[in-house]
Amino acid sequence: MVSKYVSSKISSITLPSFSRLSELTRGRTDLISLATGEPNFDTPEHIREAAKKGLDQGYTKYESSYGSSDLRKAIASKMKLEVKVDADPEREIVIANGGNMAVYLTFLATLEQGEEVLIPDPTWPIYHTCIKLAGGVPVPYTLSGKEKFILDFDSLKGHITKRTKMIVLNSPGNPTGFVADTKTLESIAALAIENDILIMSDEVYEKMLYDGIKHVSIASLPEMRERTVIINSFSKTYAMTGWRVGYAVAPPEIAAEIAKMNFYTNACPGAIAQRGALAALEGPQDCVREMVKEYARRREVLVKGLSEIEGISCLKPEGAFYAFPNVASLGKSSSEIVEYLVTKAGVITASGSDCGKNGEGHIRLAYTIPVNKIEEGIRRIDKAIKLLRY
Ligand code: PLP
Prior knowledge:
Aspartate Aminotransferase, domain 1; 390 residues; binds pyridoxal-5'-phosphate; 2 domains; eight-stranded mixed β-sheet; 13 helices; alpha/beta; Aspartate Aminotransferase, domain 2; three-stranded antiparallel β-sheet
């Protein structure tokens, strides 16, 4: 029962179903989890060492609500070199407690009550709730897939109204592995310019790309820098999920409001975590290449294994680290399949229905665990699905 002291605005928000699986998983030691988007790798040693040193150097105090100036400078260099975007470290970069917070603060900083934000469907579920909390209205546009997931441009265009403030683009995308090619980005850019719409470009999976695909940020296209907020994070690229360091790169007026909201909610991001993030950007990048190489290997094993199971079809994700197979032909809802797989196979997956209407009929599996565990997971899923079908 909900307490009378609890806000109905908050109690009406439900957690994604994997957070609710605790009942089914409690006390079980035999489980294989393919549910969470969290790298199994340790944070590379030089990053950990930099943070330890930071403690002794006195990085234990409040910092600017924009984040530490060293880290902002390093992000600006990275932006220029890799993303082909110029950003003034003093006025256009704000560091937040994780990409998640950067997303939320950006919505808080930009949305008027009732303004619409176009979000992909299927999507990372967090956008939806953060938009609502900021007073906006999430409006889904379609990502669909035959050979690979693509953005349905007619759906995007068809949902634009006078109230549309922003389009959220997530490439490489969670949960589909969708990657927007340059032509798609150019069409979205033209649409945004024509209708005076802001873009939030969530690029937290920018390094997780396969088959030689290169990351292109919509902010690097002509006339787009001034209407784009790039969201990025150290969580996925450097296996730093628990450190909680992310950032927004935004036009100066928007960045000032994001920093203001940072001040009123978090004061500033953690100083020690930012020392680690600085070492991540300034240090050797071969650790990232090694991790991505391993994700690529896991992707092959997982997609092939899932595709060989009768009743499951799985597109090859071009980026991120999730497979998002279609399980609709099994005749159960996504969340029923997720529950069934936990109970009968001891494998935890996430329900596609958490990711929007178009996610129904799918489950999400993260290839963030070692190959031998993925193989064991597939064997178990295969066995359990056979029982379901016969
Ligand atoms: N954006 C997307 C698409 C994500 O999948 C995630 C995490 O799963 C984030 C942003 C935020 O990550 P973090 O808050 O750990 O930086």
